[in-house]
Amino acid sequence: MAISGAGFVLFLLFHGTMNFVSIISSEAYEGICNFLGANWYAVAATLILAFLAAFHVFFALVLSVGNFIARGRVRYTMMKKPKEVSWASRNMLVLGILVLSGLLLHLFGFWYKMQFAELIGRQAANGMELIVSMFSNNVYSILYLLWLTALWFHLSHGLWSMLQSLGWNSERWKRRWQIIGLVIATLLVLPFACVVVNFWLINPINI
Predict the structure, then answer these.
(1) Is residue 104 packed enough to be buried (19+ CB in 10 Å), middle (13-18) or exposed (0-12)?
(2) Which domain holds residue 78?
(3) What is the pLDDT of residue 195?
(4) Is the residue at 145 inside a domain?
(5) What is the pLDDT of residues 14-66, one digit of tens each?
(6) Among residues 201, 196, 161, which one has the least CA distance to residue 5?
(7) Quick one: DSSP state of residue 201?
(8) Do 52 and 103 contact (CB within 8 A), yes or no?
């Protein structure tokens, strides 16, 4: 879980930076899209990400089922929720399902019309035109921002939990890593949110 999650963090860092370029320069963004396209290195990276996603989801379900079975049929009549246990940590499975749903929406809205279209011999959609078209749609933009919110909560707990799983955490550093996790989660999600807001509300026809 920790290793596959770390892989996604690196992917979000690259993808978020790439998307943010679309705000600065449409030509530069198109250049990046053309550089990636359906070239072997981009396809290889996509396959690795697909494997990491399947691995992450599978073991999330395994761990959740294992935890449920470990509790047994008898449930607590009262459940005290310690203040140090965040809301995100108690709802990681639900957040993960929301993140996965948003990822499928993203794949259908962008990857299917760009890289996949090129792979099957069709004309790939223009990246900038697709961004403007998708985020001029109120429903899609709102759903996308809701997905980013779920992703932020998922990352806010997942980042420091990942370090703990790798043995890089301690009682002394726990609070520090939690704060660092919040900062990193914000920096990872913010570029995506900026793109949505820019092409939805601020500059919806910038092509």
Answers:
(1) exposed
(2) 2-202
(3) 94
(4) yes
(5) 999 999 999 999 899 999 988 888 888 888 988 888 888 888 888 878 877 77
(6) 161
(7) I
(8) no
Q: Considering only CA atoms, which of 5, 10, 186 is closest in space to residue 96?
A: 5
Q: Is 207 part of any domain?
A: no
Residue 206 has pLDDT above 50, yes or no: no
Q: Which amino acid is at 66?
A: G
Separation CA 8–CA 28 (nearest Å): 24
The pLDDT tens digits for 172-202 are 777 777 788 888 889 999 999 999 999 998 8
Domain count, the chain: 1
Whether residue 182 contacts residue 156, with contact meaning beta carbons closer than 8 Å, is answered with yes
> 87-91 — which CB contacts under 8 Å span 24+ positions?
87/153, 88/153, 88/154, 88/156, 88/157, 89/157, 89/161, 91/153
- Within a domain: residue 40? yes
CB 125 within 8 Å of CB 113? yes
Cβ 148 vs Cβ 192: under 8 Å: yes
The pLDDT value given to residue 77: 52
Write the CA distances from 141 to 60, 80, 81, 123, 146, integer angstroms: 28, 38, 34, 25, 9
Is there a domain that residue 15 lies in? yes
The answer to whether residues 52 and 118 touch, using CB atoms and an 8 Å cutoff, is no
First to last CA, the chain: 39
Question: Given the structure tokens 């108690």, which residue do they identify?
Answer: 90
**At how many degrees (to 10) do helices 127-135 and 138-165 cross?**
110
